[in-house]
Structure formats: structure tokens, C-alpha cells
Predict the 3D structure of the following.
Amino acid sequence: MAPEIADNAGVKYSDYNLIAALNSVLSIVYNTLSSSSNDLLTEETTITLTDGKAALPEDFLSVVNVRGGNYVLTPQSKSKDVDEYTYRIRGNNIYSTNSTLKLAYKPYFVEVTYDTMETALILPNYFSELLKKYTVITLVGGINKQDSTIVSQVTQDVYKLTSGREYSGIEITPAWRI
């Protein structure tokens, strides 16, 4: 995020300030993507159940789908027991009568720290300009993630970047025939 011109009188920020600003912006981006139907943040894992119970992944936020064998399982209500076609999530555990489950889920945002700065983000590279732009705005203006204006702007830009990407290769069939 170095400026184009080397300005000796320019404002300098500590690593802590840069990381805090980046985390504020990343939190908004992740929350926006997690609440959308976009699959950019979707993770998949296979879970082995013991006695019908297994722990959810540490970064679990919400379910996209659960597969047991060749079936997509449905969530079970509290009043009924789970069977081979259903699952239940209670606390940090998932319950089912299947021995293994394939879980597709949305992860929550784990903040970047000084030690994890070298770790690649799940986000694709085309998010880099958006992250730079709003991190600088956050640093210069002192805006925090509670400010509704910045949240609204980031959310709009995320939707612009990601809308329709999963359908870009699908040809639309006309509603009429010749």
C-alpha cells in the first residue's frame, strides 16, 4: 500500500494499524460473502462420526449442504431422532446415523495476525484492489467496521465483483422455438 510517490512527510502506519485496518475490511467482505449465495468461501470436508456424533470444523459458520453416501441430507427438527437421511447440528457437533458425512460449509473469518500475514487468503486475487482501497480508507479516515457507510460501500463493491460469476459460462436458452 505504498504511495506512488516517495513522500518523506507522508503518514507512516505501524504493522498493528495496517493489520487492524485490513481485518476490519476483511471481516466485512467475509460476512457479505457468507450471507450471499456465492460459493467463493465454500469449504468442503469429510467428517467421520463416532456413535452418531462428530465435531464441526473449527472455522464452521453455516451449512451449505451435507451429504451422506449418495444422498443430500436434510436438517432434522428437535423433536425427532436423526436417521440416514437427516442430520442435526447442536452446538459445535453434528449428529447423524451415517458413519461419514461430506460437509460443505461457509467458514467464518479468522483474523489475520502478524504471524499469519504470509498465509494466502481464501479470496481470489481480483479482491486485492478492493482490499487495498478500503484498507487505505479505513486508515486515513479512522473508519471502523461499525460505520454503516463503509459497510454499505464494501458490500456493494463485493456484490459487483461477484454477481453472476458462477453463471458466466451458461448459455441462456430462448423461451420460444422456431
